[in-house]
Amino acid sequence: MGALPARGAGRRHWLARTAALVAGAALGGTGRRAASAGIGPTGATVSQAELLALLAERFPQRYPLAGLAELELRAPALALHPETNRLGARLAAALSSAALPAPREGALEVEFGLRYAAEDRSIRAHGIALRSLDIAGLDAATATALQFWAPRLARRAWREVVLHRFEARELALLDGLGVQPGAITVTPQGLSVAWERKPTP
User: Fold this and answer.
1) pLDDT band at 39 (very low <50, low <70, confident <90, very high)
2) Report field, pTM of the whole predicted structure over 0.90
3) pLDDT tens-digit map of 60-111
4) How do the domains of the chain map onto residue ranges?
5) Omega into 103 within 30° of 0, i.e. cis?
6) What is the pLDDT of residue 13?
7) Which of 29, 53, 113, 133 has the most CB atoms in a 10 Å sphere around its CB?
8) What is the CA radius of gyration of the chain?
């Protein structure tokens, strides 16, 4: 990937031109969208609140387990891990089965990295790792079976989960400047996405 122009007049001109165009895009939308997206001349920021709002639209979800039981996962709490550039999520869970007199409650915990998907302008979860799946009040056989399914459940629940999607007009302006979203960094406040030069054909 190409770098930003070197320091000096060329770099200042590029930053000023990018800032003017991107600021125009932000002002062209709603004030709420501009504030939450954090669009700037060298990148964008996404707050933890915005990440949670989009995740809340995806959950709750129900996942059948070999036709014998069903696990419901509810909207997650997020943990930001800047030291590893990853996110953690804890989802309340409920296991239901004809063999159980009532749903059993617990939690699923996962950790994951992030990638940018150019095809739909989204930031998505990837590299999902299961941390734990604990459901209270299960007999030994059911608990063992659940742990067998746990890694697959974690990947299924979080595979390609969208945490942010840029608007087409935002990236259309960047595209005209030969710029695209690049490195994604987890910060104490949320995410920071750097713009980078597109490779020369």
Assistant:
1) confident
2) no
3) 999 998 888 999 999 899 999 999 999 999 999 999 998 889 999 999 999 9
4) 9-46+167-197, 49-164
5) no
6) 53
7) 133
8) 21
Residue 37 confidence class, pLDDT cut points 50, 70, 90? low
Structure tokens at 172: 């259309």
Distance CA 173, CA 179 (A): 9
DSSP of 37-100:
HTB-SSEEEEEHHHHHHHHHHH--EEEEETTTEEEEE-PPEEEEETTTTEEEEEEEEEEE-TTS
* Of the candidates 80, 66, 145, 146, the residue with the CA atom closest to the CA atom of residue 111: 80
Q: Give the integer Cα–Cα distance in Å for 104 and 157.
A: 19
The CATH superfamily label for domain 49-164 reads Uncharacterised protein PF07273 family, DUF1439 (3.15.10.40)
Tokens of 123: 């930031």
